[in-house]
Amino acid sequence: MADAAELKQDLWKKLADSPFVMIGLMDSPEHHIPLTAQLDPDQVDTLFFFIGKDNRLAPGGRAMAHFVSKGHDYFACFDGTAKIDNDFGMIEKLWNRHVEAWFPGGKDDPNLALLRFDIDTAELWETDMSVSGKLKLLFGGTIKGGEEGSHAVVGTTAES
């Protein structure tokens, strides 16, 4: 079983590999939407998203985001605060050709907004089933607690 530190380290690796999350405002009746997280290694507990100024997340506020890794072996739920933070230096740092496809006006597109999501808490799950658990599953045995994976509730996603 992985401890909280290992779960946090795995989180950032998995997010970098597949940076897609569902995110929504907690005080809104509207559904969460899929967005591509922009990761800045210098910003602990923060995800960035390029959105349109008319996006349902633009008003900001309490938000929740959900992540499932590409291999469906890692899950995370983030609680925090979303707000527009159009710091041009950060826009410049995070800008890439994928973002440019959505904003043909480039970094000066009048509809461009950078949404900053500051994570307050996170709940992390990794299905790192033990060898004995995998054998039991393969041969129809009963999986016991502790054999199915790892779980942690953390106040920071910082790796240390």
UniProtKB/TrEMBL annotation:
Annotated ranges, domain General stress protein FMN-binding split barrel: 8-130
InterPro entries membership: Split_barrel_FMN-bd, Stress-Dev_Protein, YdaG_split_barrel_FMN-bd
Source superkingdom: Bacteria
Stated name of the protein: General stress protein
